[in-house]
Amino acid sequence: MLVTPTHQYPLGSVMPVARRQRLLAWAAATGTLVVEDDYDSEFRHRGSPVPALAALDAEGVVLHVGGFSKTLDPRLRCSYVVLPATAGVLVGAGPVAGVADAVLAARRARGAVVAEPVQVALAHLLRTGSLRRHLGRVRRDYTHRRARIAARLDDVVGLEARALTGGLHAVVVWSGPATGQEVAARMAGAGVLVSTLEEYGMAPGSTPAGIVLGYGAVTVPELDRALDALIGAVERAATVA
Fold first, then answer.
1. Which pTM value belongs to this model?
2. Omega of the bond prior to 10 within 30 degrees of 0, cis?
3. Please, where are the H alpha helices in 31-61?
4. Does residue 112 carry a pLDDT above 80?
5. Residues with Cβ within 8 Å of residue 188, at least 6 apart in sequence
6. CA nearest 42: which of 174, 218, 216?
7. CA–CA separation, 240 and 171 (whole Å)
8. What is the pLDDT of residue 149?
9. Is 29's pLDDT higher than 80?
10. Disulfide check for 192: which of 86, 89, 188, 229 has CB 3.0–4.6 Å away?
11. What is the helix (H) or strand (E) element at residue 89, kind and residue range?
12. Are the CB atoms for 100 and 106 separated by under 8 Å?
């Protein structure tokens, strides 16, 4: 089972600890391997941190995966896997016996997929605490952008920003007849590309009209321009309708 318990995309919900414990108990009872994609866990802007599934795993059923695309640069193309362990020993006879050996064998069979200088540099950042200090700086920057989005949209009647507790994107919904496709098309005409919330629905009508707006790779002036385009697109779509 593949899960993103720290930050569901795109709505940003977080799996409660009690539900995480039930998931782990079910996985152990059924012999199911849980792959925990821990993306965006470094960027939590509100609320207390929740322990990773791997930190709660006492039965060796969790493969914890992450990477450095959001924290450093996607061009590094470097990620990591934390193998399951029981009492500090790699799993050898648990409900998912042999998983650690299978992952290691698959990894070795692929050869050196990440350049050694990149690995050495990342190890240095981790060992010296430089990565932790870098994360502290960028968290402040992203928190500022998040607050900018919330403050700007709070002043517009009918618009609401969601999914701002963590991660690097916001979900914006509105009241009125405008659809996500209409607003996204108008924003594209203004030079701003966004996804519609409807693209993530299981069936037509299962999600409200809205857009998903990423703010991790833009400057503050670019973010302001995107918000101007969003507000203008919603207002124009409502007028036409």
1. 0.79
2. yes
3. 53-56
4. no
5. none
6. 216
7. 23
8. 92
9. yes
10. 229
11. strand 89-90
12. no
